[in-house]
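Worked example 4.2. Below are the chains of a multi-component assembly; read each line carefully before continuing.
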Amino acid sequence: MGGVGAPAETARRWQTVIGLEVHVELATRSKMFCRCSTAFGAPPNTQVCPVCLALPGSLPVPNRRAIELALRAALALRCEIDPDCRWDRKNYHYPDLPKGYQITQYARPLGRGGELTFAGAGGASRTVRIRRLHMEEDTGKSTHEGMPGGATGVDLNRAGVPLIEIVSEPDLRGPEDARLYLQALRLLLLYAGVSDVRMEEGSLRCDANVSLRPAGSSELGALVEIKNMNSFRSVQRALEYEEGRQAAALDAGERIARETRHWDERRGITFPSRSKEEAHDYRYFPEPDLGAVGLAPAFIEDTRRSLPELPADRQARYEALGLPGYDAGVLVADPALAAYFDRMLRAGAAAREGAALLSVELLGRLNAAGIGVDSPECRVHPEQLAALQGLIASGSISGKIAKDVLDEMLATGSDPSVVVQRKGLQQISDQGAIGEAARAAIAANPQSVADYRAGKKQAADFLVGQVMKATRGKANPGLVREAIARELG
Amino acid sequence: MPIDEAQVRHVARLARLAVPDSDLARFAAELGAILEHVARLQELDVRDVPPTAAALGRPGVARDDEPSAGLTASEALAGAPASAAGMFQVPRVVEG
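Applying the procedure described above to all two chains together yields the following structure tokens:
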């Protein structure tokens, strides 16, 4: 990773404290307070109506599904739910905000006091507390492209799209942890079905609060807010740069200004934003056009029960089955892959061997072909891959032959037993046949036998190889090794 | 509840209202009188009245997540003082 990077001595002197504010667009079909479509990428101002354009006389009506998805997120993050949560107005003027205020939740957010546990830097378990989770509406988008005379153009298709904001406590202690937290949060929301969480499309956005304090101190230093980080990588890079910048300034005896800074991806630096402090006087007040959200206890409980197994639980389940943490993590990180693996397990696959077959052999081939494991083009079903693992486990075929069988399965969609039959790939485990082949190899290679007798034990490997070659890889390698050793006496 | 001219200037700026200096004193007096009038509500004993923010909004009102067509781009832009490339055209705003 680039950035300034604090030297070791400085790193000991200062502790980095980071909190993240994450905005997530909810996976609804219509907007938060009107029926306009939320589809991404439509021509400008084609998904707008009097409500999201703030035309006089229009009134907001909340989207039930948006509230349900926000509730799912709050429950997945173990937040305390406020069934009586309210809407507020956040007042400010900007061209992408037609009403002159954003409807959000200020005094009574949907959720408070949650937490997210994830594997931090070096694999260590970290828990970050969630201060609050609230619902709000998105703003429009500004652009300069295609506008005459350097004017700004405003597209209000995004205005009013349902959002949640998830504010963490300042519990993160480094840029890498911050990135890993954000990735774990993304995965949690993906599993919970809350959002498509695509950072490149802006459905997941992240701002960070960063400060440094003397190591051992419990007081927070001057807070700097970093904006405009558009990928997981840029979150880590921006925070590394900012950590180094603040440490260098503090080492030089300077004071850190409390300010908002923008990350410049191309130059790899943060720079102070030009917006004035006055812009933060939002004069929040209760939204008079809307009643309380009003969450019935039964609705909260039904929603809680409808949550699927979440990433941390799935990780723990796989590890309990004997998968190493890293391997389990690879599966859990992709919900489609984890679903595939679960179907393999249900079909009777052994966990460790099945996981290796899936994530190394099948995935390697699919990635090379640019095919997703959940795509119809993937012609190997989980039950078939489980059967292939069973053939290896029972000794019917060797692991090496299994790779050829898998190639054939991918090409034809056939069951592995059919491929093995058709191609005559059944492993040779017959002692007599293997002994015969071993004797033939020994008879044909007197030099290797002489080498072996002279103490070059690796000559036996050559003879084993000759038997495997003669049987086109079908002989059971363990039995071949035994037979060669026995015949050489 | 008197407010001073600096507060009037601040609130006017937040609301993007151009208030001439010559009007500041008058607005300070008028806004102060309004606040004083509202402040009289604090004399009421409301210990047994549940707090509410909305006079009309019932709790729990919501609609289904069914999209429907709104306005076309040309209808949406019809009232805009200026537009180009299907966008509302505003003076240049630079983020950052």
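Take a moment to check your reading of the output against the notes. Chain A has a mean pLDDT of 91. The longest strand of chain A covers residues 125-137.
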